[in-house]
Amino acid sequence: MAALLMVEDDGELAEAYSLALTALGHEVRISGSGEDALDRAANFDVVLLDVMLPGIDGFETCRRLRAGSTVPVILLTARGDPVDVVVGLEGGADDYVVKPVEPRVVDARIKAVLRRTVPRGPGPAVLRVGHLVIDPGAMTVTGDGRELALTATELRLLLEFAAHPGQVLNRQVLLERVWDYGYAGDSRIVDATVARLRAKVERDPANPAVLRTARGLGYRLVLP
Asked: CA 15, CA 20: separation in Å to the nearest integer?
């Protein structure tokens, strides 16, 4: 069971999803605005966030949450335009689900997000990559001696690279290993998360030295 905060201003829709997700074993609370969600999100395991909200919209709410919190965020919205998907993922969302969607699909996405908080396979005890120290056992990453605030998904992605140093990992492999499902072949979530990760771990994100792109193939972690 997960404690869920559903941020949705359509009362009937929020209640319908709440009842269905409760029947699937979750504890659900409803919030009607981004401002309220910012005040309450720290008390929940996952935030289900609509984009079209009164006041600050879901994109801005997600950005503000991500600035000070690692709580997983799933954008659950009727806006399915590819540009919106990219904006949402680049803003820090862990997943993007387009409504209408069956509650069981939402349940599967929630479970997948929560599984990312624990790496699935053993990695090296401690891996030093340039200015970074990656400790899979402690689930911490430091850069130049300072602990970096990575989300669960960002950490799991970096640990996947750390478990295969120097090896090119393509987007589909990363989707299966990090996101726990094929994700309908949508590689945008991988690219957006790599971009966020680079912004945190690279000294110069515009010229990455740690996470390199293998053009047309995927990404690899480069050892010095």
From this structure: 9
On whether the pTM is more than 0.90, the answer is no
What is the pLDDT averaged over residues 177-205?
A: 82
Contact 93, 62 (CB under 8 A): yes
Query: Within a 10 A sphere around the Cβ of 168, how many other Cβ atoms?
Result: 14
CB within 8 Å of 140: residues ≥ 6 apart = 147
CA 150 centroid distance within chain: 10
Q: Which fold has domain 127-221?
A: Arc Repressor Mutant, subunit A (1.10.10)
Of 140, 123, 115, nearest in space to 200 by CA:
140
Q: Are strands 3-7 and 27-31 parallel, antiparallel or unpaired?
A: parallel
Type of residue at 109 = R
For residue 44, the one-letter residue type is F
Q: Which helix (H) or strand (E) holds 64?
A: helix 58-68
Does 3.40.50.2300 match the CATH number of domain 3-115? Answer: yes
Q: What is the pLDDT of residues 123-165, one digit of tens each?
A: 456 888 888 888 877 778 999 889 998 887 888 899 889 888 8
Q: Which long-range contacts (CB under 8 A, 24 or more apart) does 152-155 make?
A: 152/70, 152/72, 152/94, 152/113, 152/116, 152/117, 153/72, 153/94, 153/113, 153/116, 153/178, 153/179, 153/193, 154/193, 154/196, 154/197, 154/200
User: What phi and psi values does residue 176 have, to the nearest 5 degrees?
Assistant: -75, -40
Q: Tell me the domain boundaries of the chain.
A: 3-115, 127-221
Q: Which residues contact 69 (CB under 8 A, 6 or more apart)?
A: 41, 42
